[in-house]
Structure formats: C-alpha cells, structure tokens
Amino acid sequence: MADKNPTNRWLSHIVHLNTHNPSNPSSYADADLPKDIPHIHSGMLPDEVLAWLSAHKRYVFMAVAVVFIIIAGWAFFGSRNSVIIYGDVSYRTSKKPSDLASDINKQLSFYQVKFKYPDSSIKSYKLSEMGITLDSQQTYDQLASKRYSLWHMFIWWKPIKGDLVYKTDSTKLGKFIADNVTHTYTAPQDATIGIVDGNVVVGESKDGQRVFLDKPTSKILASATKLNQGPLFLQKRVVKPSLTSKDFEQYKSQINQIITQKINLKIENQSITPAPNEIASWLDLGTDSKAKKVNIAVNSGKVQQYIDRISSRYTRSVKSQVIITKSDGQSLVLVAGQNGVAVTNKADVAKNVATNLLNNKGIDATLVTKSTPFQTVNGAGAGKWIEVDVSSKRLYAFEDQTLVNSFPVSAGAPATPTVLGRYTIYAKYAVQDMRGNNVDGSSYFQPNVRWISYFYGGYAIHGNYWRPESWFGNVNSSHGCVGLQDYQAEWVYAWAPIGTPVITHS
Length: 506
Hints:
alpha+beta; elongated
C-alpha cells in the first residue's frame, strides 16, 4: 500500500536511487520522482522545511509558547517563590534561609513524636527531649536542590514536599530510648541453685516481658523528617531467662557428690566426720549466665573456721599455778596450774581439705596436738597485784600477801569468756567509748565507759554503769572484760598503776 505522505515517499525514492545508481549521486535531484512530490534540486531543502513550518506555524507557535511560558514561569515564580510543604504546613521559598529556619523551628516547638504502647496508652515527646534539633543549612540545601531540579522546572506551580534534616545528640537520644521507649514490664528470672540443709535445690526460671520499638533511632528520625502525626507502635516480646533448670542438671549431681563424700578428721584418737550440710557450708556457688554454667569454689576461710571449731574441743590454755607464802612460811596455792593443749597443724589440714574437696575422692587427715606444761609463779614480794576469780565472780587487791580490798564483779559471759592467766596492766583511760562485735555478728557501742585499766589486748577492768547492782557477784555478762560498779572501778584505777600484775582464773 502506497504511503500518502509526500515527504516520506520522496525519501523512499531517494533511497531507491542510491541503491540502483550509487556511482552518480548527483542524479538524485533530477531523478524521475513521483508526480505528487515537488521537484527538488540541490539547495532547495531549507526552503522546503520553511514551507512545512509555514504550513504548520500555528502548532509550532503553540509549542514554543508553552515551553516559553513554563520556563518563564519557573524563572520568575518557581525559582523564587515556590511553596514547600513540611508536614501539614507550607512555606514560601522566597524567604531567607534564616527566616525559613526560624519559621520551621516555631513549628517544631509544637511538634511531638507519639508512641503507642501495647496497653493502648499513648505518650508524646518533643524533639528537644530526644536530643533532636533542626539542621537549618542541610534542610535549606535540600530545598534548593529540589527547587532547581529539571523536574520542578516543568511543574513549578506544584508545592515541593520537603524532608527536614536534623542533628542528633546520640547520647541524649540513646538515653531517651532506654528510659522511655524500651521497657521491661517483668524481668526474666534465671533459675537458681543452692544448698539447703545438705540438699541441692534448683529454683525454676520464669519468662519476662519487654516492650520495645524495633530500630528506634531510624524510626524516630523518619517520623520527625515527615512530621508524621501518627504514633509509632511499640511491640511486646517474651524475654527468655539466661539460665533454666535444665542448665543446672549436671551441676546438681556434681555438687551432691562433693557434699556426700567421706571426710575423716582424726584428733587424739577420735574421728570426726563432717555432715553434708557442714561440707556444703564450705562451698561458694556462682552462676555464669553467658557460659550457662555454675562456678563451684571452696571457701578456704569457712574450712578454717570449721577446723578451728572442732579443734577447740581439744585445746586448753596454759594456766599458771600461783602460790603465796604466808608469814608463817606455809605456801598456799592461790591458783591451780593447768597444762595447755594446742593443735599445731590446723592451717595445714584446712589447706589440705580446701585443695582436695572438689576432687570427690574423700579426705583423710590428722590434727596433731601438743601439750605445754604450766609454770608456777610466786605472788609474794610482787607488791601490788590483782586476782580475779571468774567462778566466784570476785576481784581481790593484794599488796604482797596482804588483802587490801575486794569487790564483786561481772566477768565474761559463757560465749565470750574472760581470758585466764597472768597478765599486766599496760594502759589506763579515765573515760572511753567502747565498740565491738556480738557473738551473732551484730555490733555494739557503749559510750562513756569510765575508769578503764587494760591488762591483755582488749580485755580490761572497768566501770559498768549499764548493769544492775544485783548482777555484780552473781552474773557474768560482759564480752570478756571484768566489770565493776563505777565507784569501785575508780578505786582500782587510782590504786593500781601501769605494770600491776593481774591474775585471772576460774
């Protein structure tokens, strides 16, 4: 079918000539053309084009006018006075950057990011609370890139949808997220393991619940960039404990083997076998949630305390025998002597037990005792000396063989007895605050104690104003000191100088 467009037909004919007569291209102009195609010779092509343009000048003019209007509109209006929209508010771009930033900051002062929690509660926070501030320069630069883009030149009358650019204080934003966005409703509880009355007890674990926002930083900034009014939805997740009872199964068996192994301690032909609950008291159990393991350690101090305790049944302090010679030459045993017995290898046995306890192979050890004979001392010619009989609860003040004075006392209680032996007054204080520990581990404090004469370590003869008068001579109640009524302690304080011998016995 023939093409009805004369121009297309002319071009097709030219191609035909080139194919059949390539050696004479000049014949193209004089070729035998179709009758309805104008005769064209060299140099007539521009006129023909002009003729075509003249025939279609109305459409050409309209096209040129449209392009001119678009470009002119962008040049005079779009590039200078476009409208940009941030959130629900529009601004004229003709404003100075500082003025535009000021207007946007005013809007931001009212804007709040909303968070919706699983219980349907909604909380709102300002950007300043999160450490987020407007980056004015970056925001304006982004606006400029959109305003001068080729696409905006053709649709300059449409508002530009802008994105705000922010600066963030990462430390403040991180703290905000930790305090307000990430919540633990119930913390998970790890399984526990311990020893009660010689039995290994495992406590069950419990799941926890945590409320959080996935990728919180990026989502908060994305919402702020668009000034979104809708809330960000927080999710609820079950949080599993780090340790469960299953993790402790092998350790429960291991601990049982440790505390039930046979330990035989011999002392003076006697055998002492600690019970499982006693062995258990020597262990310190710690859990490692990352490695999912139980750390079992031997507390050597507690082992030493046990060895000291069982050794105390077989130890005795040396008690000197005190005699005085009366004026008639007769010797009198004032205090009966007592040989001392001590366990000499307590530290070695404790170390042996602590070192081998976790091997689960049983332990045999012997505590060695050594006897020390008492000495005899003569009270005659000693000048001033003091005797305290903790059994009869009485203090005697002698000068040589002469009894000068005697007072009822309240000495050390059974749990905190007064030391027995021959000592010397080494320090004196008219008044002093006293403090220390009770047997149960609690502490005590006694202010303004009067007339104090120290004779051994923290042991002293002193006034006792907090006990009733009826206790003196009847009840031993102190932490080891020898207590007198204040006026009697004052007499001893004034009478006995530093260096005065003090003999205590039962």
